[in-house]
């Protein structure tokens, strides 16, 4: 009997790259000419996976939000993982903004992905395991066909394929 091959489909950024991008944002806020003279803080809550920005409202906050997106993109963290909150003014011409990092596949999205795999007509099995989907089959070629088909479709979330065995 042939051994089953498998891989997992997850929706989770590389957390080390996220931390590197946040560190680069902090360094850029200290050195960039249009941020000089302004009190700007960039905090990261690793338990809730949130980035908290505090800066003067208006153009400075907009530029800071743009810098966060640019640094994430340069570190190969997809912008689909970022959920920008509203800019909240909090007195003295200052504002706060929370950027949440999305991780995990919701059950509704997982079922859509499972249906897309079933519609391919490839002999593979899928199982929803919490925030991930395990795809297994006898042929590695079938698994690679599934990966290519899923990369071509848009489910509204970033898909990462891990544990290919």
UniProtKB/TrEMBL annotation:
Keywords of this entry: Nucleotide-binding
Coiled-coil residues are none
One GO CC term on file: cytosol
Give this protein's Gene Ontology molecular function annotations. nucleotide binding
Q: Which InterPro entries match?
A: UPF0234-like_C (IPR035571), UPF0234_N (IPR035570), YajQ-like_sf (IPR036183), YajQ/Smlt4090-like (IPR007551)
Q: What SUPFAM superfamilies is this protein classified in?
A: YajQ-like
State the protein's purpose.
Nucleotide-binding protein.
Q: To which protein family does this belong?
A: Belongs to the YajQ family.
- The protein in question is named Nucleotide-binding protein Sulac_2012
